[in-house]
Amino acid sequence: MDPVTAGILVAIGLIVLMAIGTPIAxxxxxxxxxxxxADRGMAELTYFGETFFDRIAEFGFVAIPMFIxxxxxxxxxxxxxxxxxxxxxxxxxxxxxxxxxxxxxxxIFAALSGSSPATCAAIGKMGxxxxxxxxxxxxxxxxxxxxxxxxxILIPPSVTMIIYGIATxxxxxxxxxxxxxxxxxxxxxxxVWTLIAxxxxxxxxxxxVTATESIKQTVRQNVDANIKALIRVLPFLAVxxxxxxxxxxxxxxxxxxAGVGAFFCIALAxxxxxxxxxxxxxxxMRDALRESVMIMLIIAAAEVFAYALxxxxxxxxxxxxxxxxxxxxxxxxxxxxxxLLVAGFFLPPVAVIVMTAPILLPIILAANxxxxxxxxxxxxxxxxxxxxxxxxxxxxxxxxxxxxISLRDVLMGSLPYALCMxxxxxxxxxxxxxxxxxxxxxxx
Length: 444
Prior knowledge:
21 helices, mainly alpha, 444 residues
């Protein structure tokens, strides 16, 4: 069977398995096993098992469950609540200020947790009911949280950046730093659109105090509680800054930094929020274990899938077809962006990165694009997939938090933020220094 026909059959089989509700790891593993056995016989079962376990046995993958554990400790503590209260005090009086403060809280919480679903859930549980109680439309309330949650895979420390670094053998510390400026740029674009949307609608929300009270009285009455809340958050931010310093300063490897960060976040959650009982700590471990196992299964299955594609010469054929396109390198980048965007519609970010990054990186380098800049472009494309159907993980998280908001309203409220991400990609193409300047400054 020629590689093109084999590729079409594999793609159809994978789509069918996912359409009937098969978990992505099992779908990848099953279609890989069927393809290998059909092509080479039962002897491939041996290589299937070896490939499945060998890849995830690498020491570098230790960083993934450690960063997930660090994010679980933050997500399970009242850190998000404290962030929300502090930002709402200063931004709540603006038109759409509460929605803007939610995006700001998502940006900071993303840096603490490194996970988009955790960010979306933690801030959404508080932000959505509060915005709706102040008169915000359901679409605005749901959309700003769904979009703000996507920042979790871009602003460091990011699990997806770790996976990209391992898959492409690039510096994880440099990848983390490359995501800082674009991450906050996207947060700024989200805030601008939120302000415009609320202005067009006549402004929404009432301050936490009555209209007759002055700003000075508001600050006097609330500043003590909010300063205390902010002080409780600062140690967690210090841990994130310490991790970044350890990585780009060469003090520790990503796995070591992740382990220390997880320990300190758990210790801070216990000390600051008095989480002394066994049950809260057990919940942290349970949540971290679930997400870690899910991600590691996807990585292992995606590695087997990549092995199957390579064995059937599908990977080489696709890469060759892209490389043989005699077009301007920016047209090539446009084709790659469309491919990543479509892949992000159907697959989770981890699976897309593991399957495509090793294939695309040589093409990117041959076209003289920076691999760290491309990591940011890839991540933003996958962020769009988190708030667009049919998978749209953040959409379903928002729908589970506020089930009385229809999925259609959540989607319509999120689409303008997806366009903001497209604008962010264009800005990075015109000004690549947004992603490369800070890593070059700090790491040479």
